[in-house]
Amino acid sequence: MSCGDHHDTDCSKVLEAVYNFLDGEIDDDDRHVIRVHLDECSPCLRQFGIEQEVKALVARCCGSDRAPEALRIKIMTRISQVKIELGHVEYRAD
Known about the structure:
The structure is a single chain. By secondary structure, the chain is mainly α. It has one domain (about 10-85): Orthogonal Bundle (Arc Repressor Mutant, subunit A). It has five helices and no strands. The protein has helices spanning about 10-15, 20, 30-40, 40-60, 70-85.
């Protein structure tokens, strides 16, 4: 995905890292790069918000534990299918 504007970090790279960003699984430098990109790119910020809501929904449904791996893969696979149908970047389920 690209919003058409120039950014120091490509939109697809930011969106690939969204779950790691949400889970706090990236270093401070990468976190800063993603935060700057989200601050200046409304399409990515919108997609980030969707991913954040999915994560919150799973957390509510599964309690404070991480979603079962099978559920996570199923959700990520469906998100990928929808993105392909809409012409967006495909997400990996890993």
